[in-house]
Amino acid sequence: WQEVLVPLVGARWGVAELTGNSRTPGEIRAVRAEGLRKVAPALTPPGSVRETGVPPWEETIAGDRLVGRLSELVDRELAAADGGTVAVLGPPRLVSSLRPKLHRERVSVLTVQRAKGLEFDAVIVLEPEEIAAASPRGYSDLYVALTRATQRLGVIRTE
């Protein structure tokens, strides 16, 4: 930062560590913190400034039941979001085949790369280990996926 900023602003700059997070509720903090440790172990995860009362959930689904069960879970999250948005974030091999099967108003089925910078009321992350293994920045991508939710977070693995 010094190399970039000193020529522009001289000594009038500083570094401050983010200590509070208003996007992600406290219930998701532990999941988010675990992801951050894999990306940047020296950083302290920021605390959350709010709670929702809804803990993150995880489910393992048989591969041949994925579409049906995921459809049920998306409907459940839509109802809980009460007019809000739901995202299903996963590896490219799943996203392209699931998108037409999960087509609903207020639902986005995206790769993590497409979700960067976006927020959703509820997020379902598919196959987190596959997301992490998919690229040299895999754990960073997984961290992005785990931090898109503003209210509710679910994680699905297949067996």
UniProtKB/TrEMBL annotation:
Domain UvrD-like helicase C-terminal: 108-156
Keyword terms: ATP-binding, Helicase, Hydrolase, Nucleotide-binding
Record flagged with keyword Signal: no
InterPro entries: P-loop_NTPase, UvrD-like_helicase_C
An example molecular function term from Gene Ontology annotations: helicase activity
Entry annotated with the keyword Hydrolase: yes
Protein name: Helicase
Source organism of the structure: Thermocrispum agreste
